């Protein structure tokens, strides 16, 4: 754990936006791997959405990690920092404090409707000028959609418990690992029962559920990159594509192909 923390400290720092030129303003950025945004706060709200890759944002000591099609909402004046372990292309909608009354007053993940990614992709691909009437209308529609989105806690919680964090890091790096709970517990010299108890206490869910969510996140990122269902299933340790599709549909309520069509317009 100490080694991991030291490595993150060595990541390249990326400057944050220090001023916004309009009450509603959107910017698309490419962040290279192994970069960080040092802790800071703004007088405006932010909705952060990844087109490709997974966002990691630490907000007042709570870690939020989410892939598309979900986004992260930060109310005004909230301390936060960001980590980009891998390349990520994302956008940020900056919302002036005067326009945040209908937005959630706490940070979290917004479960957006399919219209939100479509609007963001349209804005991204058309490169509209900041003062273009169409651009301003789209931003207003986007804000209206976000006011109706459901706010949830971290989709994939993390922990400060060293032994449990070791297991989570291992699973992040090896999502196809099919070790049993007992085998994982032995890796950290813990009993199966103790590991199960710590998982429920620290993560708010069983380790099995956490692993399923991790696979969903990995799958969404790979789907966005255009990988085939067969290769994704193999990368995640499934014996068949049908087993992977069943898992994905169980958690997302639609198939991987439906996800691709909904959120990428393909």
TrEMBL record:
GO terms for molecular function: DNA-binding transcription factor activity; sequence-specific DNA binding. It comes from the Bacteria. Keywords: DNA-binding, Repressor, Transcription, Transcription regulation. Residues 165-262 form the HTH araC/xylS-type domain. SUPFAM superfamilies: Homeodomain-like, RmlC-like cupins. The keyword Cell membrane does not apply. PROSITE patterns: HTH_ARAC_FAMILY_2. The keyword Transcription applies. Gene3D superfamilies: Homeodomain-like, Jelly Rolls. This is HTH araC/xylS-type domain-containing protein.
């Amino acid at each position: 754990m100490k080694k991991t923390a030291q490595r993150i400290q060595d990541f390249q720092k990326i400057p944050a936006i220090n001023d916004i030129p309009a009450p509603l303003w959107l910017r698309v950025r490419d962040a290279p791997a192994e970069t960080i945004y040092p802790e800071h706060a703004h007088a405006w709200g932010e909705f952060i959405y990844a087109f490709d890759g997974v966002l990691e944002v630490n907000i007042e000591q709570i870690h939020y990690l989410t892939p598309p099609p979900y986004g992260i909402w930060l109310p005004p004046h909230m301390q936060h920092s960001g980590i980009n372990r891998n390349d990520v292309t994302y956008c940020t909608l900056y919302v002036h404090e005067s326009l945040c009354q209908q937005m959630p007053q706490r940070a979290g993940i917004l479960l957006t409707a399919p219209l939100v990614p479509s609007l963001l992709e349209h804005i991204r691909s058309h490169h509209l000028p900041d003062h273009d009437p169409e651009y301003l209308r789209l931003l207003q529609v986007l804000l209206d959609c976000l006011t109706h989105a459901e706010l949830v806690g971290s989709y994939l919680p993390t922990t400060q418990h060293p032994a449990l964090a070791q297991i989570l890091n291992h699973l992040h790096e090896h999502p196809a690992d099919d070790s049993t709970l007992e085998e994982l517990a032995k890796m950290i010299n813990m009993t199966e029962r103790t590991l199960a108890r710590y998982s429920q206490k620290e993560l708010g869910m069983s380790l099995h559920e956490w692993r399923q969510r991790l696979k969903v996140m990995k799958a969404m990122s790979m789907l966005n990159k255009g990988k085939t269902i067969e290769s994704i299933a193999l990368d995640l340790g499934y014996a068949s594509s049908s087993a992977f599709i069943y898992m994905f549909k169980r958690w997302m309520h639609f198939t991987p192909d439906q996800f691709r069509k909904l959120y990428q317009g393909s």
